[in-house]
Automatic annotation (TrEMBL):
UniProt-listed GO biological process terms: defense response to virus
Signal peptide start and end residues: none
Sorted UniProt keywords: Antiviral defense
Superkingdom of this protein's organism: Bacteria
Summary of the function given for this chain in its UniProt record: CRISPR (clustered regularly interspaced short palindromic repeat) is an adaptive immune system that provides protection against mobile genetic elements (viruses, transposable elements and conjugative plasmids). CRISPR clusters contain spacers, sequences complementary to antecedent mobile elements, and target invading nucleic acids. CRISPR clusters are transcribed and processed into CRISPR RNA (crRNA).
Protein species of origin: Candidatus Thermofonsia Clade 3 bacterium
Record protein name field: DevR family CRISPR-associated autoregulator
Length: 180
C-alpha cells in the first residue's frame, strides 16, 4: 500500500475513559408510549500516538510491469492531492460519533521525515519518550547528505506549515529513474 497508518493508541498512564449517562428523548409528548432508552456512552481523554508512512514514489507505479502507468504531471497532481488529504485529516479528524464526541485537540506534536531517494524514512513510535531524537539520529546514520529531511513540529500550525511546504516544493520520487 502507498499509505500505511497505525492504530491511534493512548499513551500508557495518560488516557482516562469515563462513562456518561444519556437519555434519548421522544420528540413528541402524549399519544403512544414511546420508549426513551437510557444508555451510557464511553468517552476517553488523554495523550494519543499515531504513526503514518507513505511511499509516494509508488503513486501510479505498476508493480507487475515495473513501470509507471500514468504521466508525471498526473503523478504530481495525485501526490499533492494525497498530501493535502493527510494534512486535512490531522487538522480536522473525522470518524464515527463525531456529532456527539468531537475531540478537543489541545496539542499536536511530532516529526515529519521526508525521503528524497530510496532510503526509508525512519519511523519511531511516539510511545517512546525520545522518539524525536531517535528519528533524527537514525536519519543521520542513514545518510546526512540531504536524501532524508527531518522536521519536528510542536503544534498543528507548525505541522500545517511543514506539510504545505512539502506539497508546494516536492514531487514524487521516480523509481528506476531511467525507463521506469
Amino acid at each position: 500500500s502507498v499509505a500505511e497508518f497505525s492504530w491511534v493508541v493512548g499513551l500508557p498512564d495518560k488516557v482516562r475513559t469515563e462513562s456518561y449517562f444519556h437519555v434519548r428523548y421522544a420528540q413528541e409528548r402524549g399519544g403512544e408510549d414511546v420508549s426513551q432508552p437510557i444508555f451510557h456512552r464511553p468517552a476517553s481523554s488523554g495523550v494519543y500516538a499515531s504513526v503514518a508512512n507513505f511511499e509516494l514514489a509508488r503513486i501510479g507505479f505498476n508493480d507487475v510491469s515495473q513501470t509507471y502507468a500514468i504521466a508525471d504531471d498526473e503523478r504530481l497532481r495525485r501526490h499533492q492531492t494525497f498530501l493535502r488529504s493527510v494534512l486535512y485529516t490531522y487538522v480536522e479528524p473525522a470518524g464515527a460519533m463525531r456529532n456527539t464526541q468531537n475531540p478537543h485537540i489541545l496539542n499536536f506534536e511530532g516529526v515529519v521525515t521526508a525521503g528524497y531517494s530510496v532510503l526509508p524514512a525512519p519511523t519511531i513510535s511516539p510511545l517512546a519518550d525520545d522518539y524525536k531524537e531517535q528519528v533524527q539520529a537514525v536519519a543521520r546514520a542513514l545518510g546526512g547528505d540531504g536524501r532524508l529531511e527531518v522536521r519536528t513540529f510542536a503544534n498543528i500550525a507548525e505541522f500545517a506549515d511543514i506539510m504545505q511546504k512539502i506539497i508546494q516544493t516536492t514531487k514524487p520520487y521516480r523509481l528506476f529513474a531511467q525507463g521506469g
